[in-house]
Amino acid sequence: MKVALLAPVAWRTPPRHYGPWEQITSLIAEGLVECGVDVTLFATLDSQTAGALDGVCPHGYAEDPALDGRVWEALHVAHALSRSGEFDVVHNHLDWLPLAFAAHVRAPMVTTVHGFSDSRIVPAYARAGSAYVSISDADRRPELDYVATVHHGIDMAALPFSAVGGEDLVVLGRIHPDKGTAVAIDIARRAGRRLVICGIVQDERYFAERVQPHVDGDRVRYLGSVGPRQRAEVLGSAAALLHPVAFDEPFGLAVVEAMACGTPVVTYPRGAMPEVVDEGVTGYLVDGPAAAAAAVERAAGLDRGACRATAQRRFSAARMVADYLTVYRRLLG
Questions:
Q1: Share of the chain above pLDDT 90, in %
Q2: How many CA atoms lie within 13 A of 313 on its CB side?
C-alpha cells in the first residue's frame, strides 16, 4: 500500500514545540512505516520522517513572518495533489483547503477532521469527494458522513510514567479564552495549590489582561511553549492537569498526554471530554471553578498506575495507526 500523508505546514512535522496536527500526522507516518506501508509525507522541507519526504515550503510559516501562510498552504496542496495518482490513498490533515480540489485528486482521499475552526468552512467539507474521520464522536457534524471515529494516539515512550507526581497543578495548551487559562488560575487559587502554565500565547490581549498579572514566578509560573521532553517532565511532576475548557473540545491532546504520565485530569464535560476521561480512573468531569477546585484532592488521590494503563490501552499511537489502516482498507474495498 502506498499512502500520501498531507501534513499542515504551519509548523515542522513533528513539531519542535506546538503543533498538534503536525504531531498526529508524524505519529501516523512513523507508525505506518513500521507496519511496512510505503509512506510519503508531504510537509515542510525541514520535517523528519522514516518515510519519503516531499514538499515545497522550506519551514513552518508560523515560525517565519516572511512566509504568507495562505500562499504556502496553496503551493503545498497543489504540489502534493499533483502527485496523487502515485498513491493508493491520500490522507489529508490540512483542514478544508485540499477539499476544494478533491475532484482533481486521482486516488481515494480520507480527511481527518481535527476540529472545525468556523462553521463557515463546513460547505468545503459537504461538497468534497472525501471520506471523513472524526477525532471524537462529539465533534461530528450532521451534514457529513463519516467512515470512522479515530481517537488520537500518543507516543507513550516519549511520556514516561511518574509514579509519584507532585503537588503543583498544570494547565497545558494554547493561551486563549477557549482553553480557560485564567479560569485555571482561579481553580488553583481555590484549591490552595501552585499552578504551572505551558503553551503558546494565541490571544495576546487575554494573556496581558487575564493571565500575566497573576504570574509571579511562585504561585503561578509561566514556562512558555514547551517541547516534548519538557512537556513530559512538567506533566509527570504535577498532581493533576486542569482543563477548564470554555468550548466544545474536539479531543484534548494534552489531556491524554497527562494521563500517559500518570497524572489525572480535572476538566469540564464539554465536547469530547466525556469520551476521553474515565471518571474516577483518569480524572473527573465537573461544572465550574468551585467544583473543579473541590475535585483536585480527589484527582490527586487516584491511582497513577491505573491512569497510565488506561492511557496505554485507549490512546497509544499503535492503536491509532491500526485504526487508520482499517480505514484505508475499507476505502480500497
A1: 95
A2: 10
Q: Find out whether 141 and 116 touch, Cβ atoms under 8 Å.
A: yes
How far, rounded to the nearest angstrom, does the alpha carbon of residue 205 sit from its chain's CA centroid? 24
295 Cβ contact partners less than 8 Å away, ≥ 6 residues apart: 266, 284, 286
The 8-class DSSP code of residue 245 comes to: -
3-class secondary structure, 266: strand
Residue 169 · residue 300 · CB < 8 Å: no
- Residue 264 pLDDT: 98
Q: What is the arithmetic mean of pLDDT over 5-23?
A: 95
3 state DSSP class of 285: strand
- Determine whether 143 is exposed, middle or buried from the number of CB atoms within 10 Å of its CB (0-12, 13-18, 19+): exposed
DSSP 154: B
Residue 263 CA to residue 256 CA, distance in Å, equals: 9
Alpha-carbon distances, residue 52 vs 24, 38, 216 (angstroms): 17, 8, 46
Say which DSSP state 199 is in: S
DSSP at 36: T
In the prediction, which pLDDT does 117 show? Answer: 75
Q: CA angle at residue 242 from 236 to 245, to 5 degrees?
A: 140
Under 8 Å between Cβ of 46 and 59: yes
Q: Answer yes or no: is pLDDT of 77 > 80.
A: yes
3-state secondary structure of 143: coil
Q: Which residue has the cell 512535522?
A: 13
Alpha-carbon distance 88 to 81, whole Å? 13
* H-helix or E-strand spanning residue 75: helix 69-82
Tell me what the mean pLDDT of segment 103-129 comes to.
92
H or E element at residue 4:
strand 2-6
Which grid cell sits at 44?
515542510
The alpha carbon of 16 is separated from its chain's Cα centroid by a whole number of angstroms, namely 14
Beta bridge partners of 41: 5, 53
Give this prediction's pTM: 0.94
